[in-house]
Amino acid sequence: MEDIQSPCISICRQDSNGVCFGCRRTTEEIGNWSLYTNQEKEEVIKKAADRRNAPDTATGTFFR
C-alpha cells in the first residue's frame, strides 16, 4: 500500500487559529504528517475538509 501524499498546495500561510489557508491542516498536523499512518492521514484530510479559515494572522507567518 502506498503512502497517502500530503495535501499541501503550496499556499503556506496560517490563519489566526494556526490553520493553513492552503491545505487547512493545523501546524501540528503539518509537522507530524510524515509520522502518521495512512489511517491517521485520512482522518486529518477529513477534518481539514470540514475546517473553515479564520482571519489572517497579523504576523503573516509562513510554514515554508
TrEMBL record:
Superkingdom classification of source: Bacteria
Pfam families: DUF1289
InterPro entries (UniProt xref): DUF1289
Name of the protein: DUF1289 domain-containing protein
The species this protein was found in: Labilibaculum manganireducens
